[in-house]
Amino acid sequence: MFIRILGSSAGGGFPQWNCNCRNCAAARAGKPGFRARTQSSLGVSRDGANWILLNASPDLGAQLVQNPALAARIEGASRNSPIKAVVLTNGDVDHVAGLLTLREAQAFSIYASRRVLDVLAGNALFDVLAANLVGREILTIDAPTKIIGAGVDLGLVVEAFAVEGKIALYLEDAAAGPNFGTQIGDTLGLRISDPATGEAFFYIPGCAKIDEKLAARLAGAKLVFFDGTLWHDDEMIEQGLLGKTGARMGHVNMSGPEGSIASFAPLGVERKVYIHINNSNPVLNEFSPERKAAEAAGWEIGYDGMELSL
Ligand code: MLT
Ligand code: MN
Ligand code: ZN
Asked: Metallo-beta-lactamase domain location, by residue (predicted)?
């Protein structure tokens, strides 16, 4: 199984177009230790020829230029794509907007929760993905889903499970109370496995809390890609960027007693990689004490183009 990080940053990317925080300013100035990043997506393939996108980033076009393995093949037909399926973990803009890049009459399948499929169906913009070519398949929670797209069996199985999180920002219902109308299953984690080899990994780009159930699920895993949005809850407020905490945005922090570094410490996960890293996060500075602390705790800071195989 081949895995490639197409985009390692959170919504907005790094540097973010309108952001002049210390990280974004340093990245824009080309300072050493600050590597630019595109928005949240992974590619996975069993055979290296046919690929599944895990979330479709607004930066997908640029990501395909950077990752020719996923772009149209020179030896292929006049229109062709190695991308046979897209699996969505939620309805956030940074995870669905890239679907619009996949227009132009190409067959593939979209796998998502019923609620996210309804959001796509309710927005006429996504009708550019013609129903006769682009299949919409429900990703059932806590059941294995064999991924098939454009008539190709991708040879991989996805098991989606609900994690703590929040409904997409643009769907928030202020009148619905403190959870803004969030339902169980609005934020999914994925376990992607290859039945032929038994190898598996987890992909969890958004998660508000590492509860006992999630901890038990991840214990002993070989590889986990995990939500690295913020270092600490108030960092966007402190830097004058946005008046919201990580908790309000539906993301657990890296630091602190309930943060991901502490929560993963006893789980015996072999390889832990942060993805969906927000531009405000000090770990994006390769020379920062926070970066050193995360690495000392056994975490890798995912980057665009990072390749792994299982
Ligand atoms: C998030 O991960 O919290 C969202 O992508 C935020 C957003 O929609 O900008
Ligand atoms: Mn996001
Ligand atoms: Zn910034």
From this structure: 50-277
